[in-house]
Design brief:
Layout: H1 3-17, H2 24-40, H3 45-61, H4 70-86, E1 101-107, H5 113-126, E2 131-136, H6 143-154, E3 158-159, H7 166-179, E4 184-189, H8 197-210, E5 214-220, H9 225-238, E6 242-246, H10 255-264, E7 268-272, E8 280-282, H11 285-292, H12 298-308, H13 311-323, H14 328-340, H15 344-349, H16 366-376, H17 380-384, H18 391-401, H19 405-426, H20 431-438, H21 443-461, E9 465-468, E10 471-474
Helix pairs in contact: 1-2, 1-4, 2-3, 3-4, 4-11, 5-6, 7-8, 9-10, 13-19, 14-16, 16-18, 18-19, 19-21, 20-21
């Protein structure tokens, strides 16, 4: 997400950090590079112009030039201005009582309206609501069938009719929802390949007929300024309450995310960050600014961890780590939880200081699947006691998992190293933990901590050998 923009921002800040003293001319040069980076990211020209002007004024006003760490102060100012540019945002959906609350989704064809409708319904279900999906896209072939299948996957009811009258379907859906005590209606409407009068009239008629409490525009983030322009046109006809940006995980530039609020005046409510139905996130400008500047997003990472890790399970694991009885079954549970959170790469991106280091790293999330296959090929005893896995057992496990013997050996070695490191940290030996955080969270300190754990293990089990008259005596 926004890799290209993040890289250019970091390059600008690095050039300033290398200077002992910063002049007003240096700030102007930096802002010229920032302006270029934003324009290349397909951010609206007027938005870029105002943003650079605001940052320059704030930088001079904050006396960046006289500060002890001028580059850090400038990063803070840019972060604050990015947050202001994309916000403020209230991600709450205001529900009416008595219900149902009607949420209408509008947008161009191909933007991901139908999938987003299902994602939003899942989000509402997770927040204690009883949603009803309404298939009111009567133009696109198979749109109704798609929504029905998505509803079945989520175990959420879908209302549909064999009709070509979208206003009639919408009215009947609201009536059905009232009779069957649904809290929220998520209305999926028809789109077109481009904005035209016929589509606008149809969506406006549906809105007039059911008077939705919230109208969200679904925009494809990868279309950049086209998404912003279509949002502006829709807002003139429908009076939008917010925007949902889809496919943001594939957007390396970020032009739409940075422009849409400033151009339309309407906030981004949610963002789609993947194809799966749980990949819809609330939009937080301050967190997004942190991601753009490579500062990570610890809050979102913690929230994801809370969703997929149970407190009791975590306490049990901590006790096992302290005792050194952490087994492959526990390891497998952790790997599966990481996979649910989006994979190792997505997690690392949210850690402060890690975003810029991922470009040179070859992280294959498919490695987790290979690990699972290897662990599932082990016996229960081998999973509990990895130390008994000798050469013959490794050959058997490798044959069962369809991998090479060295793959099994590598996993066992990595597991033992990780277990020793976790034992050292959990057992109160904070030397590894202190070095991990005092040096900053990066791959060098992680490797050093892991190798440190390995050395503890080797020293504790190393056998002393003494050579006497050509013989080796062990004791």
């Amino acid at each position: 997400m926004f890799e290209s923009l993040t890289e250019k921002f970091n390059s600008v800040f690095r050039s300033l950090a290398g200077r002992g003293k910063i002049t007003e001319a240096n700030v102007s040069d930096a802002m010229r590079d920032v302006r270029k980076a934003l324009l290349e990211a397909d951010v609206n020209y007027n938005v870029v112009k105002k943003f650079c002007k605001d940052v320059t004024q704030a930088a001079i006003g904050a006396e960046v030039i006289k500060s002890l760490h001028p580059s850090q102060v400038l990063v803070k100012i840019v972060n604050d201005e990015l947050t202001k540019l994309m916000g403020p945002v209230d991600t709450r959906i205001y529900f009416v009582s008595p219900g149902p609350t009607v949420i209408m989704l509008a947008g161009l064809q191909g933007g991901g309206k139908t999938t987003t409708a299902a994602k939003l319904a899942k989000y509402l279900l997770a927040n204690g609501k009883t949603p009803l999906l309404v298939a009111d896209d009567l133009q696109r072939p198979a749109a109704i069938e798609q929504l029905i299948i998505l509803g079945q996957q989520l175990n959420i009811d879908v209302y549909s009719e064999d009709s070509k009258n979208s206003v009639k379907v919408a009215k009947n859906a609201v009536k059905h929802a009232k009779e069957n005590n649904y809290d929220v209606i998520v209305l999926d409407t028809a789109g077109r390949l481009h904005v035209d009068e016929e589509m606008m009239a149809e969506v406006a008629n549906v809105a007039k007929a059911v008077t939705p409490h919230q109208i969200y525009l679904i925009c494809d983030a990868m279309t950049g300024q086209d998404a912003v322009n279509s949002a502006k046109e829709f807002n003139e006809r429908l009076e939008l309450d917010g925007v949902i940006l889809t496919k943001l995980d594939g957007d390396a530039r970020g032009g739409a995310a940075l422009s849409v609020k400033a151009v339309t005046g309407k906030p981004i409510k949610f963002i789609g960050v993947g194809e799966k139905l749980d990949k819809l996130e609330e939009f937080h400008p301050e967190r997004m600014a942190g991601r753009i500047l490579g500062m990570g997003d610890v809050v979102t990472l913690v929230e994801k961890a809370q969703e997929h890790f149970e407190v009791e399970e975590a306490e049990k694991l901590q006790k096992k780590m302290a005792k050194g009885s952490f087994g492959f079954d526990d390891f497998l549970k952790q790997m599966q939880a990481v996979k649910k959170m989006g994979g190792i790469k997505d997690m690392l991106k949210m850690m402060p200081g890690m975003g810029g280091q991922l470009a040179d790293m070859d992280i294959d999330d498919g490695e987790i699947r290979r690990m699972e296959a290897i662990v599932y090929s082990m016996t229960q005893t081998e999973r509990r006691e990895p130390d008994i896995i000798d050469a013959s057992r490794r050959r058997r496990v490798a044959a069962g998992a369809g991998v090479q013997v060295h793959d099994v050996s590598g996993l066992v070695k990595t597991f033992k190293r990780s277990r020793d490191m976790m034992k050292a940290m959990s057992g109160g030996k904070l030397g590894g933990l202190k070095s991990l955080f005092s040096g900053g969270l990066n791959m060098d300190t992680l490797s050093a901590a892991m190798s440190g754990g390995r050395k503890i293990k080797q020293r504790s089990k190393r056998k002393r050998t003494i050579k006497r008259r050509g013989k080796i005596k062990r004791r």
